[in-house]
Write a structure and sequence with these properties.
By secondary structure, this protein is an alpha+beta fold. It has four domains: 3-219, Heat Shock Protein 90 (2-Layer Sandwich), CATH 3.30.565; 229-372, Ribosomal Protein S5, domain 2; 397-475, Rossmann fold; 486-614, Four Helix Bundle (Hemerythrin (Met), subunit A) (Up-down Bundle). It contains 20 helices and 22 strands. An eight-stranded mixed β-sheet has the order 1-6-5-4-7-3-2-8, with helices on one face. α1 crosses α4 and α4 (98-108) packs antiparallel against α5. The structure holds adenosine-5'-diphosphate and magnesium ion (MG). Residues 32, 35-36, 125 line the site of magnesium ion.
């Protein structure tokens, strides 16, 4: 009994856009269908490892293209896992894949030239068939016991029909009735050319059968060479081939930043093809997000998103690992504490770090791209990957005060002027805020450079940065900068005596908000500034946690006064009690603003400023 159903709104909208798009490379539909066939064979082979009913006949796994130039049809057939009626409906019809809507939106936003990338990104490859076909029929018989065939049909017009179907051999056949202006896709030479261009490294043979052409058995040769890219010698692979693999198979976007083609030999033997992308989506920043490389064991696809193959901080990597040391019946659960997997992970991590170190040295521009796009991952690794902490430390970059360039700790240290004894850093929400911080005045006067920690990840690792290569790391807004010579110290001591009543007045007035009031030599131009209790959370971190709805314990700052500043001197000379209180509140409000937070009572602060102006 046939039933007709309406597509989910998102799918309908997407189909409409795909069909009417002016995208000229409609040919990519073929590689999508072939890759789906290959996926289905991968899944069948994998399930067959543990379930004897999946492939008792031990078939030659294959994909067949059947072209009929007179009838204007093209069929893409595979003997993979197949789909039951329910699976078919779920995969191709009602349950909208979350990608459809996003895909449609990207298309509407005019990203038409990126159709192949978008298709990959949102996992809507099957629907590309409608770019060239006015009807698509899917006939399938699921592998396994007691399965019934199923058929799905649609003209891409908002509806699809399902009925029992007639397929008798396991697998799936997708038949396209080509649009009048797309009939070249039923022609032999077009198909040969397309398979070679787009699907050459598909691991299963792709055969071509042309209607009306006699089949000679000895001439039956696959259109593709089938050698997995990572199995080929490195010297043999062209950059375009890596890129095609990156985009088509791994669903990478744009060009990769760096390709690592690994053939490990010796005690640990494996092959791998890894790609460092140029950018990653926001979702990647969430450590819980699915990620991981694909794993093959002796040509059998075990699975993708194998998280065990890389440390979590390397989750931006895309690629494939192929090992012949693992047992074929390895399950996902077994991977978790498999010694070989652990060794591969350590080796891969090492190689990636080495490649990055090389990039930093030889291709600084590429390394800057890496720093901007993926530097936060590296810093996450600094926090979590103890074994590689030193190597990672060398690769971390921070914007500096001197020229706003990304600077590593090594370069910073090498450029330190004589007499500078510490590496100075400052956490702030933005580079601009950091630059304007009054805490830097004395450092600027000395001509010392400062590294800025401005991303949430930077601030997260700040507490772990206390030393580099035997040089202490000092935060410009915490504690003592260690810059004062004995003479300066004596001066401060002397100033303290005369200014003690002023310090007391500040302390009394700000009792509720400030932990301590003291004199400083940190400042040259500003009257005062807020510094952190060395144990306290950085203010930006605190705001972030508050924004995430977490309760953060109340922490008081330290207020530092510049004894040489005329305003501080004026407060100390003030005899009128009210005016002194107002001045203290004004100065404190300014210090808050300089640090990037609001004064405790913004309305009062405003009123005081207005009063001051009217005077
Ligand atoms: P993706 O391949 O990214 O999942 P597609 O739109 O290409 O997205 O395919 C959608 C789904 O349809 C697949 O995930 C799979 O479940 C099913 N499918 C498509 N083609 C086949 C096939 N030849 N054999 C079995 N299942 C298939
Ligand atoms: Mg697909």
């Amino acid at each position: 009994m046939a039933k007709t159903c309406a597509f989910k709104a998102e799918i309908r909208q997407m189909l409409d856009l795909v069909i009417h798009s002016l995208y000229s490379k409609k040919e990519i539909f073929l590689r999508e269908l072939i890759s789906n066939g290959s996926d289905a064979i991968d899944r069948a082979k994998y399930l067959a490892l543990t379930d004897k009913t999946i492939a008792p006949e031990a078939p030659e796994w294959q994909i067949t293209l059947r072209a009929d130039a007179t009838a204007h049809t093209l069929t893409v057939e595979d003997n993979g896992l197949g789909m039951s009626a329910e699976e078919m409906e779920e995969a191709l019809g009602t349950i909208a894949k979350s990608g459809s809507k996003a895909f449609a939106e990207a298309l509407k936003a005019g990203e038409e030239t990126n159709i192949p990338e978008l298709i990959g990104k949102f996992g809507v490859g099957f629907y590309a068939a409608f770019m060239v076909a006015d009807t698509v029929t899917v006939e399938s018989l699921r592998r396994g016991e007691n399965q019934k065939p199923a058929r799905w049909m649609s003209a891409g017009d908002g509806e699809y029909t399902m009925d029992e179907g007639t397929r008798t051999v396991p697998g799936t056949a997708i038949t396209l009735h080509l649009r009048d202006d797309q009939t070249q896709f039923a022609e032999e030479w077009t198909l040969r050319d397309l398979v070679r261009r787009y699907s050459d490294f598909i691991a299963y043979p792709v055969y071509l059968e042309v209607e009306g052409k006699e089949k000679k058995d000895e001439e039956r040769k696959p259109l593709n060479t089938m050698v997995a890219l990572w199995k080929r010698p490195k010297s043999d692979v062209k950059p375009e081939e890596y890129e095609a693999f990156y985009r088509q198979t791994l669903r990478g976007v744009g060009e990769p930043l760096k390709v690592l083609h690994i053939a490990a030999e010796g005690t640990l033997e494996y092959r791998a093809l890894l790609f460092i992308p140029k950018t990653v989506g926001m979702e990647m920043l969430m450590p819980g997000n699915k990620h991981g490389l694909s794993l093959y064991v002796r040509n059998v696809f075990i699975g993708d998103e194998i998280e065990e193959l890389t440390p979590s901080w390397l989750r931006f990597l895309k690629g494939v690992v192929d090992s012949s040391d693992l047992p074929l019946n390895v399950s996902r659960e077994m991977l978790q504490d498999d010694a070989i997997i652990r060794k591969i992970r350590a080796d891969l991590t090492n190689r990636v770090l080495k490649a990055l170190a090389e990039m930093a040295k030889e291709k600084p521009e590429d390394f800057e791209t890496f720093t901007v796009a993926l530097g936060d991952f590296l810093k996450e690794g600094f926090h979590s990957d103890w074994e590689n902490k030193e190597k990672i430390t060398e690769l971390m970059r921070f914007k500096n005060l001197k020229d706003g360039k990304f600077t590593g700790l090594k370069a910073y240290k090498e450029a330190m002027p004589e007499g500078q004894k510490a590496i100075y850093m400052l956490t702030a929400d933005t580079e601009q805020a950091a630059r304007q911080s009054p805490c830097l005045e004395q450092l600027k006067a000395k001509g010392y450079d400062v590294l800025f920690l401005t991303t949430p990840v930077d601030q997260f690792i700040a507490s772990e940065l206390y030393e580099y290569d035997k040089t202490p790391i000092v935060f410009a807004d915490k504690g003592d900068l260690g810059l004062d010579e004995d003479e300066k110290k004596k001066e401060l001591e002397a100033a303290k005596e005369t200014l003690q009543p002023t310090l007391d007045a500040f302390a009394k007035q700000l009792e509720k908000t400030v932990k301590e009031v003291r004199l400083t030599s940190r400042l040259t131009d500003s009257p005062c500034c807020l510094v952190q209790d060395p144990e306290a959370l950085p203010p930006s971190m605190r705001r972030m946690m508050e924004a995430m709805g977490q309760t953060v314990p109340e922490e008081k700052h330290i207020l530092e006064l510049n004894p040489d500043h005329p305003l501080i001197k004026a407060v100390s000379a003030e005899t009128d009690e009210t005016r002194r209180v107002d001045a203290i509140d004004l100065l404190y409000g300014q210090a808050c603003l300089a640090e990037g937070t609001l004064p405790p009572d913004p309305a009062r602060f405003n009123a005081l400023v207005a009063q001051l102006m009217s005077r």
